[in-house]
Design a protein that fits this description.
Shape: globular
Oligomer: single chain
Strand order of the largest sheet: 1-2-8-3-6-7
Order of helices and strands: EEHEHEHHHHHEHEEHE
Largest sheet: 6 strands, mixed
Structural class: alpha+beta
Radius of gyration: 18 Å
Distance between the termini: 21 Å
Number of helices: 9
């Protein structure tokens, strides 16, 4: 069996609350809408999973199997989306809603009134030097929308990818197939969220701290899932 190693620039092990955990990325083929996420998890994770492990899967990987990756050429943003996208702060960590195409899907996913209210609150927040109010009001559906980036694996470098549909249910379905607890996670180099967990006993806050440095990577690593495992000394 092949040895699992960390992605370039990422640490294999992290210590949280005095306990050491390994985060083992799993390399896969480029997952598309032609794939079943349960099949993908079974193929790539089951050979490596041990009792006590937790499988974590990128929300984008799950969304792509649900036909929630939309080619840019097929998106026709409304005028409101074009206008609002100009006010989004752009960062080196991703486009977010800073282009009309991603803002268009924020409006579709969250509703026009909610997005307008979120934009209003964000404007007020900026007057007081506060940031992030837009996503607090708009919610996770807006925050989970990813735009195309040059370092994204094709064909997704030309797509808007939405958050996964019903990640809690999906996590349970995958867990049944792989016989191990499963997390659906939204991670980037700024932080993240746990969108779904197959077992209510999982400490989401702890797991988020274990994954806080995004061990799956943010570029072309092609590791959309990984295994959380206590290190041998801790097991």
């Amino acid at each position: 069996m092949a040895e699992l190693t960390s992605n370039e620039g990422k640490n294999l092990t992290i210590e949280v609350d005095g306990v050491s955990y390994d985060r083992l990325p799993l390399h896969t083929h480029v997952v598309t809408e032609e794939d079943d996420i349960c099949d993908v998890a079974e193929t790539y994770a089951v050979p490596f999973l041990r009792p006590g492990d937790i499988l974590f899967i990128s929300e984008k990987c799950v969304a792509c199997t649900q036909q929630r990756a939309i080619p840019m050429k097929d998106i026709k943003p409304r005028r409101l989306a074009v206008l609002l996208s100009h006010f989004v702060t752009k960062t080196p960590h991703g486009i977010g809603l800073g282009i009309p195409e991603t803002m268009e899907f924020a409006i579709r996913e969250c509703g026009t009134l909610r997005i307008l209210f979120a934009a209003f609150c964000a404007a007020i927040g900026k007057l007081f030097g506060q940031h992030g109010w837009f996503y607090i009001i708009a919610g996770r559906k807006a925050a989970a929308i990813d735009g195309p980036c040059p370092n994204t694996i094709p064909p997704y470098n030309q797509c808007v990818v939405l958050g996964p549909d019903d990640p809690e249910k999906v996590s349970r379905e995958i867990a049944e197939r792989v016989d191990s607890p499963v997390l659906i996670v939204d991670l980037n180099d700024l932080g993240g969220n746990i969108l779904g967990a197959s077992d209510t006993a999982i400490d989401r806050d702890l797991m988020l701290r274990v994954l806080r440095d995004n061990p799956l990577g943010q570029s072309g690593e092609q590791t959309p899932m990984g295994i959380i495992r206590r290190t041998a000394a801790e097991a």
